[in-house]
Amino acid sequence: MVKTDTNRYRTLIERIFFNHWTEGTNEFEFARIEIEEHAKEQEIALPKNLGDLIYSFRFRIPLPQKILETQPEGLEWIIEGAGRARYRFRLVTITRIVPSKALVTIAIPDATPELIRGYALDDEQALLAIVRYNRLIDTFLGLTTYSLQNHLRTTVSGVGQIEIDEVYIGLDKYGCHYVIPVQAKGGNDQIGIVQIRQDLAFAAEKFPDMRCRSIAAQFMPGEIIALFELTLDDSQVKVVEERHYKLVPANELDKEAIRSYRTSS
Question: Are 88 and 190 in a shared domain?
Fold first, then answer.
């Protein structure tokens, strides 16, 4: 019987975890080559992209139940980069960043070209394109921003290889320059501490003279886009600000709602 990717991944990550973990351990490192070694021992076909195994447990699927059972109350295991081809399991305080159901939705005239909507390949790409064409980062932060690069892959000291969905450069009215890493989340992906930590480390190393504002964008039901500004406070992800936007044709804008926005600006 052929194992699915998820089953293969669970088997391999479980073997790696319990090869290092002992009762009372709060963190430990492992090397990427261990994935290959355990796959050979278990006669498991390796995924084409070894990094996908780690990415999956970071953002898409839960760790195996046996690993979850080792988590003390209020803490959870995360997997973070620990250098070139190395990773670290670490216990952190449980943090879940999800869109608030209590926030008002702000209507924005939709400036997305129909051609772009027609050819967007997945949720993440569509979200990044919609945010870019509608200048939602500018609206959200009150800055003038420009997309510098998307799907940026680079290395950061002490972290290893990282990928950032899109990087913006911004400017405020006082002339201050900003670097703005943006993570896009669609489907079941979650906003987590690992990406925020790597984004901030990237900004500090590559753009040390610029102010960093880390952003996450996420699709919500009803074609609503949630934008978060996030930071780390005592090793926990904290929301600095959150706004919800809905793109609508200009002739469908609610004039009464537009007037009401004046009181909140």
Answer: no
